[in-house]
Amino acid sequence: ASAWSQVPQGPPDAILGITEAFKKDSNPKKINLGVGAYRDDAGKPYVLPSVQQAEQTVVQQNLDKEYAGITGVPDFTKAAALLAYGPDSTPLKEGRVCITQSISGTGALRIGGAFLQRFYPGAKTIYIPTPSWANHKAVFLDSGLEVKQYRYYNKDTIGLDFDGMVEDIKNMPKGSMVLLHACAHNPTGVDPTEQQWKAISDAVKEGGHYPFFDMAYQGFASGNTDKDAFALRYFLKEGHLPCLAQSFAKNMGLYGERVGAFSVVASSTEEKARLDSQIKILVRPLYSNPPVHGARIASTILNDPKLNQQWLGEVEGMAGRIIKMRALLKENLEKMGSKHKWDHITDQIGMFAYTGLNAEQMTKLAEEHSVYATKDGRISVAGITTDNVGRLAEAIYKVKG
Ligand code: PMP
């Protein structure tokens, strides 16, 4: 018998299932709002001009293909930390941020999970928001952590359950690990305000909890990378010593290049050195060292002042187009005469909008209108264009009124 005769069939990936159904649909006006990747206003994947230019520079340099160190390309990780923590960051200036390149954001979370599993002195339970990016739970479970949840989304207001969130954080056992989406919460698009972040920071501090920031969309929410780093930087100012997962998939459009970083803020340079050594010991048996090409591209963009400026403009452009599509969708729904309020579409931020449509309505959207997205009512706003927004609004109006 085969060694694998007892392996059970697993369920298909929810997002990939949508793409399959979308591909099979013969309607020429079909719309795919399932996948979380940016599209331009023609609905096409977008390679940033700054990335094209940086890539040419990298190729022209004729660099060798030798291995990077275990923690990756130093020029990249240094610049990545600066982007996240900011030039005024005390821990950065004091040299107590331990950072490693990672296989994009997922890899950063996975290294983080493994690090916490091995060294976190408290209970090995991490709390993630309800709902959260579907992969968070799987990543942390596979890292050997226990996963619990805190309240986050209020389906009645289609907004933040701020009181529930703070109450849950306060009620966690002392010294719990808490995962926070730094900005552009996936899947809801609902972010705390700056005022609310301050209260969240207080609650985390009060509980002696450990904050783990997942920043997969820096710049993608507001269009400004500093503004989107508010929560992380505020926590640092407040004396928290968080860890951080960064991804350059969205803000540089480097999805398949897998460029990211994991960092831990230490309390001293001596502590940082110990953490550095352990991160290396952890990464080495996982994949030895990360790929260099994407990191070289990102490094070129981040370290060349002119290219960096250009890139920041392009990030602003992507975020701006998404914000515009939100406004257009709301406007079109109101024009149709929808009796519902759609303010949440423009209040929410980042790649995704939580429409408030239920699973049944989402099924109708697909079957009767060829509009495809996840059953939780999440749509990728990046898939909306000036050309399809009218048809989308009409479809939503027809299934929801
Ligand atoms: N965290 C969140 C919240 C995300 O939405 C994503 C991307 N969908 C990631 C992490 C990681 O993505 P990647 O591994 O492509 O960087």
UniProtKB/TrEMBL annotation:
One of its GO terms (cellular component) is mitochondrion. One of its GO terms (biological process) is L-aspartate catabolic process. Its EC number is 2.6.1.1. Its cofactor is pyridoxal 5'-phosphate. PROSITE patterns: AA_TRANSFER_CLASS_1. Residues 29-396 form the Aminotransferase class I/classII large domain. It catalyses: L-aspartate + 2-oxoglutarate = oxaloacetate + L-glutamate. Pfam families: Aminotran_1_2 (PF00155). GO terms for molecular function: L-aspartate:2-oxoglutarate aminotransferase activity; pyridoxal phosphate binding. Keywords: Aminotransferase, Pyridoxal phosphate, Transferase. PANTHER family: ASPARTATE AMINOTRANSFERASE, ASPARTATE AMINOTRANSFERASE, MITOCHONDRIAL. This is Aspartate aminotransferase. It comes from Salinomyces thailandicus. The lineage of its organism: Eukaryota, Fungi, Dikarya, Ascomycota, Pezizomycotina.
